[in-house]
Amino acid sequence: MCSAHYTLCFQMERKQGEVDHLELELDRPIPLTDKERVMIQDSWAKVYQNCEDVGVAILIRLFVNFPSSKQYFSQFKHIEDTRELEQSSQLRKHAHRIMNAINTLVENLDNSEKMASVLKLVGKAHALRHNVDPVYFKILSGVILEVLGEEFPEDVTPAVGSAWTKLLATLCCSLKAVYEEVGWTPQSASTG
After folding, report:
1. CA proximity to 190, closest of 144, 133, 125
2. Residue 114: which residues within 8 A CB-CB, separation 6 or more?
3. Under a CB-based contact definition with an 8 Å cutoff, are residues 43 and 148 in contact?
4. In the CATH scheme, what is the homologous superfamily, with its name and number, of domain 8-186?
5. How many Cα neighbours within 13 Å face the side chain of 77?
6. Residue 30: its pLDDT value, please?
7. What is the per-residue pLDDT for 185?
8. Cα–Cα dist 47/148, whole Å
9. How many CB atoms within 10 Å of residue 166?
10. What is the Cα–Cα distance from 8 to 184, expressed in whole angstroms?
11. Residue 17 region, left (φ>0) first, then alpha (ψ -120 to 50), else beta?
12. SS3 call for 76
């Protein structure tokens, strides 16, 4: 985990319901309180009941609002139709993997070693095997917050959203540290 304290601010400007700009500032993470851990776990329990559909909604929103993110997905990067994307078995598998990884992290909010282990695996795979620019983790974090807030407004209240923001800041910070540890640089990424 990132040892520094942090502040994370997601700012989204919208026009006609679409995200035109996402700014994520990661200064220093602020640790979660016990109350925030409980809020995250309680809200996630409801989200995870529909894990595949929510995961697909997150990926579709990511691809629609940030089309450049599709470059990392050879199986469906050329699919333009969102209905076709939603039906893609490859997209559904990846959505399920993302949701399972988040679930493991949420279940282990009080186990920093387990969280660090999961984030190290995710970070190394995305840095070394997939050459994903780490900025996409920040973008994905904003999309996750947006989708959870829209799809689960009773469960993801402003206070819960704030707790999720702190958690996602920690995750981004930790993933950035893994990228630095393995020596990833934009120049080392494939153009693939």
Report:
1. 133
2. 104, 108
3. yes
4. Globins (1.10.490.10)
5. 8
6. 81
7. 87
8. 8
9. 20
10. 23
11. left
12. coil
The per-residue b/e assignment along 12-41, b for 16 or more CB within 10 angstroms, e otherwise, is beeeeeebeebebebeebbebeeebbebbe
In this structure, what token pair is assigned to residue 57? 């909604």
Q: How many CB atoms lie within 10 A of CB 162?
A: 14
Please give the span between the terminal C-alpha atoms of the chain, in angstroms, as a whole number: 30
Per-residue pLDDT of the chain (192 residues; tens, 9 = 90+): 343 222 233 333 333 333 333 334 444 578 899 999 999 999 999 999 999 999 999 999 999 999 999 999 988 888 889 999 999 999 999 999 999 999 999 999 999 999 999 999 999 999 999 999 999 999 999 999 999 999 999 999 999 999 999 999 999 999 999 999 999 987 544 444
The most distant pair of C-alpha atoms in the chain lies apart, rounded to whole Å, by 44
Beta strand 18-26 with 8-15: parallel, antiparallel or unpaired? Answer: antiparallel
**Backbone dihedral angles phi then psi of residue 43, each to the nearest 5 degrees:** -70, -40
Give SS3 for 171: helix
CB proximity list for 69: less than 8 A, separation 6 or greater:
62, 63, 136, 139, 140
The number of beta carbons lying within 10 Å of the beta carbon of residue 57 is 18
Rounded alpha-carbon distances, angstroms, from residue 172 to 49, 57, 88, 163: 25, 21, 27, 14
